[in-house]
Design a protein that fits this description.
The complex is a heterodimer of chains A (538) and B (198). Chain A is an all-alpha fold. Chain A contains 15 helices and no strands. Chain A has one domain: Cytochrome c oxidase-like, subunit I domain (Cytochrome C Oxidase, Chain A), CATH 1.20.210.10. Chain A starts with 26 loop residues before the first helix and ends in a 40-residue tail after the last helix. Chain B is built from 7 helices and no strands. Classes of the chains: A mainly alpha (538), B mainly alpha (198).
């Protein structure tokens, strides 16, 4: 698809690992403005935080193995589910695909040498690690770890004795990092596309990252101000959400979800972008309905910003508001379904090669469909009365976030691994690890849907004996799931150390990142490519 | 990385940042309108206590500073670095003056025991507590933005004097101007909401 000018020259080009710049050692990484190095820095931290949060999840499930199981005190349990949520949402899931793959591959896929503002990009990473450190500091200072749930609902967050203000400040800093990344990506997409790379030749991953970046810019400031007000309340008693001072806690919920619902799309849109890359490559076929997929990303980003009230059907908002939010919630399912149909249609009559990336992508479609369809139940006003704040919700959003975004991330990791590290991994082991992960995942989260339907409330420390079997199944599932995760990452780690040289284009991909050596050289392309075709012409 | 400078890119970045700033303040404006709708009489009574003379004075100061800011950009484009630097200095001075007046106002209010969580304020109705809560958070956040603006303006002044900003390269100054005008515009909304509508 490009003039093959990138392999010209007789001398081998130094890749971005070898080409160090002016700093040495670790400084060559943490002061680097190279988008690829910054992407890998995020990868390292995200995996670290992910394992911490998984460990918290494991403890939670262990506690719930049997009724009355005396593993920890209730206060400890509250802190653990809160931390699991805060870390997974703000430190792992939101930055994962945009900050890791977006940083690494957005410039490569549009044929650029870097993002629009490389130094701002480095600042984003520093803000990210600072926010993370502040969140972790809040565990050991003030009144101890937060116990409010990741939502910090007022008035409880204003009254509880634990260290809410510091944790909230950490999340505020993380939000700032996210906004700056969004600004960088939108500007990059507008300004740095290679010659001939017009909008409908952009790979669909770029469309996913681009629409996500808009949500990051427009929604994140709202939670920023909300959290700032929580801090002002805690430190100065300013009283904006405190009912004792005339404040309205429902307004807190509105402002919180104005960001935090669109945040779900910050999580899922980039993952959908990854899936749209993997499916055409492994079915050797041009993607079906390119424009429909591109526009549905923008449609999800915009309509998805107007559905936040569906988190508040039982909070005391007006019936009319609930009705409108319910309608919009059903509407946002349409563009998501458009994507699913297009992916399936792309597979039809393709010459399918079931390599690990495609396996994870297909699993994404399956699990995301379960997550999406269970979401429609909650979107219906009457059914929501029954399901609100039950394990059904917990099951639903884990199918979306882990089954969707998590498996999308794993698909991307297995797809781009050879490009990022220049080596391949053992495909057979990856498939076996997938089998274990898939079994563990469903054993962990499917019983939660049934538990919720039967009336088990979420966030409870204990439960009556009638729920024992399903809770036990979920706990066993959590062990299998963790075994699968460990195997997946061990296999990748082994590939990193001993894997075969991958070569520039091991999967036969057609987008620009595959037209440069693996790992790519410092400024990506020896000569900026000229684009003459669409992204998926096989 | 690249040695070339993408002026349009810088400006797009700045506009996107301003958009996020508008949404940051937007949350507060939503709270203000919602609470005002719920407590019209309390808001009326509390607003009556604010000092309209100082508020008006500050509005004039800030609008004038926007003018000098715009003129500073105009003259750097024309290549008159000296005049540009002088006008930027006036902008800085006016920004400082604004914060000075603001602090006089806050000090007076605090002297009258009207500050968050003060016994006098807690003795009043919920709506009045909310009014003062919003007054302090909104004008406080705005004041913080003025302060940041002053820092950036000082850096720009140094860059002009050193000749790093000149008639060929003035996008950083233009972007600073955009930010300064936004801060000004937010005040133009804060002023009537707190001082004039009673």
């Amino acid at each position: 698809m490009t003039e093959n000018g990138t392999f010209e020259g007789t001398h081998p080009i130094a890749n971005f690992y070898q080409d160090q710049g002016k700093h040495r050692g670790i400084l060559a990484w943490i002061l680097s403005t190279d988008h690829k190095r910054i992407g890998l820095l995020y990868l390292l931290l995200v995996l670290l935080f992910f394992s911490v949060a998984v460990f918290f999840g494991f403890l939670m499930r262990l506690k719930l193995m049997a009724p009355g199981f005396p593993l920890m005190k209730p206060q400890m349990y509250n802190a653990i589910f809160t931390l699991h949520g805060i870390i997974q949402i703000f430190l792992v899931v939101i930055p994962a695909i945009p900050a890791i793959f977006g940083n690494f591959f957005l410039p490569l896929q549009i044929g650029a040498r870097d993002v629009a503002f490389p130094r701002l990009n480095l600042l984003s990473w520093w803000l990210y690690i600072s926010g993370a450190i502040i969140v972790f500091l809040s565990l050991f200072t003030g009144g101890g770890p937060v116990d409010t749930g990741w939502t910090f609902y007022a008035p409880y967050s204003l009254r509880t004795m634990v260290n809410v203000p510091l944790a909230v400040f950490g999340v505020f800093i993380l939000g700032l990092s996210s906004i700056l990344t969004g600004i960088n990506f939108v500007t990059t997409t507008h300004r740095l596309r290679a010659p001939g790379m017009h909008w409908f030749r952009l790979p669909l991953f770029v469309w996913g990252i681009y629409s996500t970046a808009w949500v990051q810019i427009l929604a994140t400031p709202v939670i920023g101000i909300t959290l700032l007000l929580i801090m002002l309340e805690r430190y100065l008693g300013i009283g904006v959400f405190d009912p004792a001072k005339g404040g309205d806690p429902i307004l807190y919920q509105h402002l919180f979800w104005i960001y935090s619902h669109p945040a779900v799309y910050i999580m899922i849109l980039p993952a959908m972008g990854v899936i749209s890359e993997v499916i055409p490559v492994f079915s050797r076929k041009r993607i079906y309905g390119y424009k429909a997929i591109a526009f549905s990303s923008m449609a999800i980003a915009s309509v998805g910003s107007l559905v936040w009230g569906h988190h508040m059907f039982v909070s005391g908002q007006s019936d009319l508001a609930s009705l409108i939010f319910s309608l919009l919630t059903f509407l946002v399912a349409v563009p998501s379904a458009i994507k699913v149909f297009n992916w399936v249609a792309t597979l039809y009559k393709g010459s399918i090669e079931l390599k690990p990336p495609l396996l994870f992508a297909l699993t994404f479609i399956f699990l995301f469909s379960i997550g999406g369809l269970t979401g429609l139940f909650q979107g219906a006003l009457a059914v929501n009365m029954h399901l609100h704040d039950t394990y059904w919700i917990v099951g639903h959003f884990h199918y979306i976030i882990f089954g969707g975004m998590g498996f999308g991330f794993l698909a991307g990791l297995h797809y781009w691994f050879p490009k990022m590290f220049g080596r391949t991994y053992d495909c057979k082991k990856a498939v076996w690890a997938w089998v274990i992960l898939f079994i563990g995942f469903n054993l962990l989260y499917f019983p939660m849907l049934i538990l919720g339907w039967e009336g088990m409330p979420r966030r409870y420390y204990d439960y009556p004996p009638q729920f024992h079997t399903l809770h036990l199944l979920a706990t066993i599932g959590s062990w299998i799931l963790i075994a699968g995760l460990i195997w997946i990452f061990l296999n990748l780690f082994q590939g990193l150390r001993k894997g075969k040289e991958a070569g520039g284009n091991p999967w036969g991909g057609t987008t620009l990142e595959w037209q440069t050596p693996s790992p790519p050289p410092m400024e990506n392309f020896e000569r900026i490519p000229v684009v003459e075709k669409g992204p998926y012409e096989f | 990385m690249g040695t070339h400078q993408d002026d349009t890119g810088s400006k797009i970045g700045m506009w996107l940042f301003l958009l996020s700033e508008i949404l940051l303040f937007g949350g507060l404006f939503i709270l203000y309108s919602s609470y005002r709708y719920k407590n019209p009489i309390d808001f009326h009574l509390a607003a009556w206590e604010l000092n309209r003379v100082l508020g008006t004075l500050n509005t004039l100061i800030l609008i004038t500073s926007s003018l000098t800011m715009a003129l500073s950009i105009f003259f750097i484009q024309k290549g008159n670095r000296k005049l540009s630097a002088l006008l930027l200095f006036v902008t800085l001075f006016l920004g400082g003056l604004f914060l000075g007046v603001k602090s006089v106002e806050w000090t007076a209010k605090i002297g009258h025991d009207l500050y968050p969580n003060s016994p006098r304020l807690l003795g009043r109705s919920g709506g009045e507590i909310l009014f003062y809560g919003l007054y302090y958070s909104m004008t406080g956040l705005h004041g913080l933005h003025v302060l940041v603006g002053l820092l950036v303006l000082s850096v720009m002044l140094v860059l002009i004097l050193k000749g790093k900003i000149n008639e060929n390269r003035f996008v950083p100054l233009e972007n600073t101007g955009l930010y300064w005008h936004l801060v000004d515009m937010i005040w133009i909304f804060l002023f009537p909401l707190f001082y004039l509508i009673t």
